[in-house]
Specification:
Layout lengths: L25 E5 L5 E6 H7 L3 E9 L5 E6 L10 E2 L2 E4 L6 H13 L8 E9 L6 E10 L11 E7 L1 H7 L7 H15 L6
Parallel strand pairs: 3-8
Antiparallel strand pairs: 1-2, 3-6, 4-5, 4-9, 7-8
């Protein structure tokens, strides 16, 4: 895959007929302390700004490059924006660790991935209060050939971290991922633990 996105490439982000609608997926919604309060369909949770759970996985290849992608236009949250994490929402009753591995394998189009290593918990609240999540940030090494889901990922590449950092000011990024990546960089620069 080219390191430069082609804006003219068709975006296959709309689910095909017969594919379950992501807006109907049942998720746990939680309070500020990550305690489950109930369940609701994803679309309703987004519409009402209910706090939900997510797993973010930073994927590195054997050359230490980071998997970067642009989300499809059909995504419910942050369509067509760039992201340096794979991952997603936890299904009702699913653990962060289970979701991290499931989401990484699904989005990368691989099986047999090593279990992602948990780095730190992360809470994101959008400035307007409409998007709120509890997340856990993970990291994993992937030596397998990736075949990303075309319904999820419109473009992808493994980028050296220096290039990723340079692109932070050039591309439009998912705000929660950008905040989590900023925290990861700050923790690593300050020697603040395993992150």
């Amino acid at each position: 895959m080219s390191d430069t996105p082609n804006p003219g490439t068709p975006d296959p982000g709309t689910p095909s007929p017969g594919t379950p609608n992501p807006a109907d997926e049942i998720l746990d919604f939680v309070d500020e302390n990550d305690r489950v309060l109930g369940q609701a369909p994803r679309g309703e949770m987004y519409a009402k700004g209910l706090r939900h759970r997510c797993a973010f996985v930073l994927v590195r290849d054997p050359a230490d490059r980071i998997f970067v992608h642009r989300r499809t236009a059909g995504k419910l949250a942050f369509p067509s924006l760039y992201d340096m994490f794979v991952g997603g929402v936890l299904g009702a009753g699913e653990s962060y660790d289970e979701a991290a591995l499931r989401e990484a394998e699904e989005e990368l189009g691989v099986s047999g991935l090593e279990r992602p290593v948990p780095l730190f918990p992360f809470r994101y609240d959008s400035p307007d209060g409409t998007f709120r999540e509890h997340a856990y940030v993970y990291e994993v090494r992937c030596a397998l050939p990736v075949r990303p889901q075309p319904e999820e990922i419109a473009w992808h590449a493994f980028l050296p971290e220096e290039e990723l950092v340079r692109r932070l000011g050039e591309w439009e990024w998912v705000p929660d991922g950008l905040a989590a990546y900023g925290r990861l960089r700050a923790l690593r620069a300050g020697g603040g633990g395993p992150a």
